[in-house]
């Protein structure tokens, strides 16, 4: 299992860089993971998305469908890609510490 | 690594096909009036203007190296003004306006190890998938079986002596990438054991509701196992489709002992004569036997043989079986009829024989 | 080939009349360590009867949500060069026509940055570049766009549309399959590259009912060429077929699914009103019979593989439509469908399954189409009608 | 009341048929070799021995008084040595070995008001059910509609000029007592409003789990309404089948305003040529219009007409429609195609048109 | 007719060419007050467009659980003579043959103790005696048994079996439908009279695939005569048909569903191996064609009306069986089926629905039959196979 | 609604003689109803059946299927008809004060 180290953060991640144990996620970890996704700083916009994702996941046990994400956060798909260049699944979910999206590829 | 190109562009889409059409095609685009299949793998299309384009079609294993592509390109340069195309069944085609190019091109292709054929009432390439070469989901390999079967059937690629077209497809798991569900003969990789649930790891890496929702027979259900919120599988309800594994890595089904293949027959896609049809189960299980899967090869060859011997002209596999009846098919093919053949999914009742139309 | 603790079983697949993929791997392995380890791992699979790839990866290029299938070996220590082995899906040119010149450029990029192995093509239609590593993805993407190629689709997006050779080389193309394919691909670049649907959505364009791209079996929207007026008959040419030995009665008339033909050894008669445009007679006697001139396409919806409610074939949505640029009617319909399905579809529910769940009549209502009898094979047999009373 | 018979016996079963066979039938039982339909409603069967039995078939309204039965019996005595039979479609048949009895018997039957006919390629009696005459479940009457339709079609009973047999059936509710689900033309009584639940009375007289289980679309669910454990109906999920009412009197659906009829076509039972088929929806709704249901009569007569005019010999309704296609049927019959025609129950997907086999 | 507050709408149904049930009610009403009130109540229904019967009653005779359908008017004050209006189902003699003498006796009983109205016959096959009161049930029963008649079935029991005219008057009866019907009825008197099944179970016996008793559509077990060997052809008689103007090519050969016939204007050829015994050619040319001599029946199972999973047709259970007394093979099978279904069937689940729920293969296992390809129209299309591994 | 009177018992019943309000059932009522079904006295065997029916109904809200009734009480169908001549549905259920069996006729 690869170790991912960034500043003081050191966590186990899988090959795709997704966190292995979601329980270990915190804001620092988010920042650390963001760095791998071409995101230098987490702005308010980033946090709005991350928080929405985490809350949704906590409530329903799944990541929201993307249309729902856009609708409920008010960001267009384009804006999400601007915030997380590798997109909502690979980028935002990773930073938010969610289970890796699967299946539909 | 090399320096990035100056400007990063996205969403340019594929090259416009217009750039890639051979001149004779471009000139007669949409103006073809007829065609003739001249010999196996060679046909000519005739345009309103009287212009002709000859096509030579060669087999391809689909999994090819860049060097092979380059070899194709060289042939294209040599005979086809630098153009070539691939077919919807992954064969390669060379188009030329020059009749005299056909024979030498054919020779070159055969020398390269690529038989020319697959046209008209023959067996064309096997549409297939990734198998052990690339996919996590595979219950078998794809390319190896295709190679073994086509080695046995290549003469039916290079001849045109079948009653109709025969389309074979292979998919390495029930996701059925390709057209296995509508093929004259389909080879399908299957699992036969329920998923092995990694109980503790599962909630960390999988969405539990998604895993539960993924099961067509509701065999996956949420469970709390020694304090962990995870899922369990009701094994009697599992028919090994692996859809749970598709959405959840912690539910692996692969099993060297029990994985294997099944054979399906009688599907078709074209609207010619009979409406499109799904393939139907012929042989429920054949074990994996790499590298040459002799049992699969025998099974396919056997079915091809009885069909080609008994079908009437232009009768595809499914049309033929419909005419003679399934009982006769099983008898002629020497395949024992078993409980697995009887549908038990959603529309099962509609597959029962609801008449006395029986052939004795 | 690499030293192995397993016997080289793959070797046996190098001989035989059919071209060998093993030789292709070997060929690539001459220069690519990746291809070499692929050989090794695959050979191990052949010995152990089991695959050695881990469950899907999620990798990609910036700004895109798909186009790359992440893949990692579960034996990275044994086969380090395939520890990463991602495929890239490259959007093929319509009908798979190429200029050698450009194809060679793709080869060069892939030889340099990938395994040197490809699939020409994937089942959806893309060029499949088989095996590279995460760091190479961005550079490859940039080099590809530089030569005019772009990624295809993966994930819950519009997938790479594809089409039969159509008007480029077929006398039966009832509409321009290549033009429509290209246009839809370009119109929906965003939907192709940035997955935002409940599940995948595939388009396949076939020029006539022969459906040489198997669209009715594996496209969420199948657009299949058809004509409405009468089959054009050249009676002289028919007689010629007969003279040259074709048994018109049994081979043509006898296999007509609607039994709407007759042949009296002199004249071929077709009851066009009952002809279901199956193509059979035309296929067999192409010199004598030609489709009519009132041409267009049937739009069908919803085919897919079995998972999870059982395989579906596409079914008629619009019985007949003229296919003319800029295809606004098709696009209007597609937009309505996507809007509805994206809003109401469940996660991983293909549009065909969605229609079955909500009912075709309700679906039509919602996308603004009137019910037509051509959409069904037969009316309902059960009396469970949701009548609407005032 | 009269004194009971001395000994109460049970389980004696029906009279043995042997007692009831006319002598010529008994003598040639199982030895018939051929038959000929001589004229409408009259046929002769020929035995190995050369013996002949003539059959005269007369219409019956099925709902008959004992006096009518006695009148039949008198005819049987007069012409048939005291024997008679009824058919599976509720006609009455008189069998005699004497050819000379046929004509006078026919005359007597016609005088009695019972047309002779219903054989060969004609329209026979309408198989029907109880309706308002006896059943609690009826959404319409049965006998009245049958009378009205057959009044209009009686000439097709007494002639043999149809392309094939035409079987009409009527059922007064979705229970479909009879063979409505497999008839050339079926007339079916329907409700169009959900049940009116008698909330409080229900638990006293109904089994709640049975009521809940009875609903094909799960529209009935248990509910506690102001302290009473009862059921409620999700009205959007109700398609008015009345199965809940069948098991629970407190869920009545009858509704004078909204009940009515639907017309179904193309079913058949026999295995002759095409396998048996279900009837399919042609006209979703016609209001109840007693006493003569003119709209129903017109609808049926119209369908009979277009079929009889256009079908080929021996083409039953469903076979004919299959040949010309449903779109053409709707067009010819002048029936608007509507959302109700599109199936949305269990196997709905299989009724969608899954090919491009379209007739324009 | 009784004084009514409603116009006499029924009156309009007395004229017309078809025999009038209204006249029959009127006729009975001359002596029966019940029939008179039935007229009144029915006429009220005709005016109000709604029925006036209360939800089912439960009445019967001692020692029997069925055979009587209880019925009460919901307007007992207006129509007191039909406040009770129960029907009795009387088990008909096989194939509905009667001796006038005995039928008159039934009439006498019914005139005395019932409404004098009947259905000859009910859809299941019984004589339906329409309308009597609870106190009359026992006396009627006793008088009927005295003249040799017994009740038929109602409720969750074996229902009254019925059959086509078969060998009594038909050259195509492949077995003795009357004998089998009588035998099964007598063997299962207890199952007929004392409901103990999950739901009803109907037998219908047809002598050949023409199925003149509609057994394949409405019997839980349909027993339909069939032959296994070749159709017997009298070529001279075939030619005679042709000479007398029958267009054999189009009317006979052209409608053969398996297209297994040929006619060259001299000889009729049948490819018997592909003949599906549909009867069509025999029906049309009965003087020339006869079924083969290796005769028996196909056993089919499970047809029923739509409620609740949608209508079912019976499907093949035993492709071929010789039908010979004492019918032990049929009875053995029936017993196994009943045993299983009674044990595992849900309340109100017909055997056809039960099979669909548990799966045909499991059902066969449980009743001890081997799967045979004749039982299905085609093998499964979905890959959802419950494989059994060790 | 007909009134049914027998000795000191007086209850509402429907036309078939089934009790209208099951809450009013008691052993006396059972005896009363039995009298209409050709049963003069309720023996131990009768009560065994009645009690089984009532318990089953209380538990599941439905009457048991007849096969189950036979199996669990140990009485054959014939014995049940001997005890309640109009059978388990019309006879035994009525006496036991259950809702009137419907449907399957
Ligand atoms: C090149 C290709 C289209 C393309 O864009 O690549 C193509 C080309 C032609 N097809 Fe096709 N078909 C091609 C895939 C298909 C497919 C799709 C598939 O196989 O996955 C089908 C549907 C198959 C099915 O039903 O399962 C297909 C069903 C047909 C048919 C109908 C055959 C039938 O009887 O069912 C015809 C008509 C005929 O051959 O008589 C046809 C006829 C033709 C004609 C004659 C059309 C023409 O006039 O040019 C072309 C040459 C025929 C030949 O190869 O015999 N083509 N054709 C495809 C060649 C694949 C290959 O390499 O073998
Ligand atoms: C590469 C390709 C097979 C090939 O060798 O050609 C492929 C490969 C995979 N398919 Fe596929 N599918 C491919 C064409 C298809 C097709 C055929 C088509 O598009 O015409 C189908 C059937 C038609 C359809 O869409 O239903 C197909 C139906 C599936 C399914 C089942 C979808 C369903 O709704 O039933 C899955 C499972 C999923 O989506 O989770 C799937 C999933 C997959 C995944 C991503 C595996 C997974 O479970 O996540 C495979 C990745 C393999 C790998 O490691 O490289 N693939 N897949 C094809 C895409 C190449 C291309 O882009 O050109
Ligand atoms: C008397 C009766 C049997 C009985 O036991 O009562 C009977 C008697 C005969 N039937 Fe029938 N059928 C009788 C009900 C049926 C039924 C059942 C029904 O209608 O509910 C069917 C199935 C109908 C369906 O498919 O929906 C039936 C489908 C046939 C057929 C097949 C017709 C077809 O083309 O589909 C034949 C063959 C023929 O007529 O050519 C046939 C042929 C015959 C023959 C010719 C058999 C014979 O050689 O004796 C008898 C006289 C035919 C006629 O009336 O034209 N009988 N016949 C029934 C008369 C009913 C009536 O009063 O009209
Ligand atoms: C009298 C009769 C109609 C007729 O006028 O001929 C009849 C009348 C009733 N049927 Fe029936 N059925 C009659 C033959 C049929 C048939 C046809 C057959 O047996 O060939 C069917 C269709 C075949 C089948 O069994 O599925 C039939 C399918 C039903 C059903 C639906 C059963 C199902 O599984 O779908 C019901 C509802 C039920 O059982 O609760 C039903 C229920 C009823 C009830 C008892 C009403 C009810 O909901 O309780 C009707 C009583 C009417 C009355 O008040 O007199 N009746 N019923 C037929 C019996 C006469 C006889 O014994 O000869
Ligand atoms: S068929 Fe299955 S194993 Fe094969 S490529 Fe598709 S998803 Fe992978
Ligand atoms: S393999 Fe398929 S059937 Fe088995 S548990 Fe997984 S999803 Fe369900
Ligand atoms: S689908 Fe029709 S138009 Fe397209 S290539 Fe095939 S035959 Fe030609
Ligand atoms: S296209 Fe097909 S249906 Fe039409 S006439 Fe030709 S063979 Fe018949
Ligand atoms: S069809 Fe319905 S209403 Fe008519 S008799 Fe049967 S159950 Fe009663
Ligand atoms: S009428 Fe039918 S659909 Fe409506 S609630 Fe009752 S059982 Fe359900
Ligand atoms: S089913 Fe066959 S045997 Fe019976 S009467 Fe009809 S034709 Fe004759
Ligand atoms: S019985 Fe039917 S299938 Fe057999 S030859 Fe005659 S018409 Fe054809």
Mind explaining what this structure looks like?
The complex is a heterohexamer, with 2 copies of chain A (105 residues), 2 copies of chain B (360 residues) and 2 copies of chain C (390 residues). Chain A has helices spanning 27-35, 44-60, 66-73, 77-83, 87-95; strands at residues 3-6, 9-12. By secondary structure, chain A is mostly helical. Chain A has a two-stranded antiparallel ribbon with strand order 1-2. In chain A, a hairpin with a 2-residue loop joins strand 1 and strand 2 (9-12). In chain A, helix 1 packs across helix 5 (87-95). The longest helix of chain A is centred in the middle third of the chain and has 17 residues, at 44-60. Chain A is globular. With 360 residues, chain B is an alpha+beta fold. Chain B is built from 10 helices and 14 strands. A 5-stranded antiparallel sheet of chain B has the order 1-2-3-6-5. In chain B, strands 7-8-13-14 form a 4-stranded mixed sheet, with helices on one face. A two-stranded antiparallel ribbon of chain B has the order 9-12. The termini of chain B are far apart. By secondary structure, chain C is an alpha+beta fold. Helix content of chain C is 32%, strand content 15%. Chain C contains 13 helices and 14 strands. In chain C, the strands form 4 sheets. In chain C, strands 6-7-8-13-14 form a 5-stranded mixed sheet. In chain C, a hairpin with a 4-residue loop joins strand 10 (261-263) and strand 11. In chain C, helix 1 (21-29) crosses helix 2 and helix 3 runs antiparallel to helix 4 (134-146). The longest helix of chain C has 17 residues, at 328-344. Chain C is globular. The N and C termini of chain C lie far apart (77 Å). Chains in contact: A-B, A-C, B-C, B-D, B-E, C-D, C-E, D-E, D-F, E-F. Strand 4 (63-65) of chain B pairs antiparallel with strand 4 of chain C. One iron/sulfur cluster is lined by residues 129-130, 135, 137-138, 171-173, 175-177 of chain D.
Oligomeric status of the shown chains? heterohexamer
Biggest sheet architecture of chain C: 5 strands, mixed
Strand percentage of chain C: 5-15%
CATH level-1 class of the largest domain in chain C: Alpha Beta
Task: Describe the structure in brief.
The complex is a heterohexamer, with 2 copies of chain A (about 100 residues), 2 copies of chain B (about 350 residues) and 2 copies of chain C (about 400 residues). Chain A is built from 5 helices and 2 strands, in the order E-E-H-H-H-H-H. Chain A is mostly helical.
């Amino acid at each position: 299992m690869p170790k991912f180290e960034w500043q003081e953060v050191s966590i186990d991640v899988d090959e795709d860089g997704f966190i292995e144990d979601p329980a270990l996620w915190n804001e620092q970890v988010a920042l650390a993971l963001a760095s791998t996704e071409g995101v230098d700083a987490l702005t308010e916009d980033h946090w709005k998305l991350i928080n929405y994702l985490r809350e949704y996941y906590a409530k329903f046990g799944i990541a929201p469908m993307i249309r729902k994400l856009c609708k409920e956060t008010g960001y267009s798909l384009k804006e999400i890609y601007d915030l997380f260049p590798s997109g909502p699944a690979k980028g935002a979910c990773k930073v938010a510490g969610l289970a890796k999206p699967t299946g539909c590829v | 690594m090399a320096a990035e190109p100056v400007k990063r562009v996205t969403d340019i889409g594929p090259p416009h096909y217009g750039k890639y059409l051979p001149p004779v095609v471009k000139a007669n685009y949409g103006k073809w009036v007829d065609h003739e299949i001249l010999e196996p793998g060679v046909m000519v299309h005739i345009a309103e203007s009287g212009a002709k384009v000859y096509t030579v079609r060669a087999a391809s294993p689909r999994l090819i190296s860049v060097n092979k592509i380059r070899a194709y390109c060289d042939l294209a340069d040599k005979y086809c003004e630098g153009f070539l195309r691939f077919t919807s069944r992954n064969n390669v085609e060379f188009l030329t306006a020059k009749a005299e190019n056909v024979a030498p091109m054919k020779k070159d292709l055969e020398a390269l190890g690529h038989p020319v054929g697959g046209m008209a009432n023959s067996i064309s390439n096997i549409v297939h998938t990734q198998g052990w070469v690339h996919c996590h989901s595979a219950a078998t390999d794809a390319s190896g079986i295709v190679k073994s079967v086509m080695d046995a059937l290549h003469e039916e690629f290079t001849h045109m002596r079948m009653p109709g077209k025969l389309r074979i497809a292979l998919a390495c798991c029930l996701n059925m990438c390709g057209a296995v569900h509508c093929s004259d003969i389909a080879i399908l990789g299957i699992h036969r054991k329920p998923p092995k649930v990694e109980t503790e790891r599962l909630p960390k890496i999988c969405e539990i509701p998604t895993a539960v929702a993924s099961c067509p027979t509701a065999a996956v259900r949420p469970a709390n196992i020694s304090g962990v919120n995870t899922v369990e599988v009701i094994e009697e309800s599992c028919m090994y489709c692996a859809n749970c594994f598709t959405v959840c890595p912690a539910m692996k089904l692969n099993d060297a002992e029990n994985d294997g293949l099944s054979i399906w027959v009688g599907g078709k896609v074209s609207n010619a004569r009979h409406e499109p049809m799904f393939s139907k189960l012929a042989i429920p299980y054949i074990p994996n036997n790499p590298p040459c899967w002799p049992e699969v090869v025998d099974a396919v060859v056997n079915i091809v043989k009885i069909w080609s011997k008994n079908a009437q002209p232009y009768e595809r596999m499914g049309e033929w079986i419909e005419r003679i009846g399934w009982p006769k098919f099983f008898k002629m093919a020497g395949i024992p009829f078993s409980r697995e053949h009887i549908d038990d999914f959603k529309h099962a009742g509609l597959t029962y024989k609801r008449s006395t139309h029986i052939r004795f | 080939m690499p030293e192995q603790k397993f016997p080289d079983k793959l070797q046996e697949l190098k001989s035989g009349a059919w071209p060998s993929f093993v030789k292709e791997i070997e060929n690539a392995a001459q220069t690519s360590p990746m291809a070499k380890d692929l050989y090794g791992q695959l050979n191990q699979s052949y010995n152990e009867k089991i695959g050695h790839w881990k469950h899907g990866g999620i990798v990609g290029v910036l700004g895109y949500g798909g186009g790359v299938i992440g893949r990692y070996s579960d034996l990275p220590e044994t086969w380090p060069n395939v520890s990463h082995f991602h495929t890239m899906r490259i959007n093929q040119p319509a009908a798979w026509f190429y200029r050698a010149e450009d194809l060679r450029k793709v080869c060069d990029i892939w030889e340099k940055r990938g395994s040197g192995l490809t699939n020409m093509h994937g089942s959806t239609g893309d060029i499949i570049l088989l095996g590279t590593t995460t760091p190479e993805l961005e550079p490859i993407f940039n080099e590809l766009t530089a030569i005019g190629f772009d990624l295809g689709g993966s994930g819950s997006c519009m997938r790479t549309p594809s089409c039969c050779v159509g008007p480029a080389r077929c006398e039966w193309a009832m509409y321009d399959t290549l033009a429509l394919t290209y246009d839809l691909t370009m119109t929906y670049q965003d939907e192709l590259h940035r997955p935002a649907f409940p599940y995948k959505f595939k388009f396949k364009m076939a020029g006539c009912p022969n459906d040489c791209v198997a669209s009715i079996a594996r496209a969420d929207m199948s657009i299949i060429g058809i004509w409405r007026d009468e089959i054009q008959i050249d009676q002289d040419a028919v007689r010629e077929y007969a003279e040259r030995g074709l048994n018109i009665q049994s081979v043509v008339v006898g296999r007509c699914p609607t039994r709407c033909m007759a042949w009296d050894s002199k004249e071929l008669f077709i009851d066009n009103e009952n002809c279901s445009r199956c193509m059979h007679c035309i296929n067999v006697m192409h010199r004598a019979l030609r489709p009519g001139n009132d041409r267009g396409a049937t739009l069908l919806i919803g085919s897919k593989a079995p998972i999870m409610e059982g395989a579906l074939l596409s079914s008629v949505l619009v019985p007949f439509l003229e296919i003319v640029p800029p295809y606004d009617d098709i696009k209007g319909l597609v937009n309505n469908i996507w809007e509805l399905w994206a809003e109401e579809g469940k996660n991983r529910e293909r549009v065909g399954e969605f229609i079955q769940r909500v009912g075709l009549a309700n679906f039509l209502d919602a996308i603004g189409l009137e019910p037509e009898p051509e959409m069904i094979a037969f009316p309902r047999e059960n009396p469970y009608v949701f009548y609407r009373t005032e």
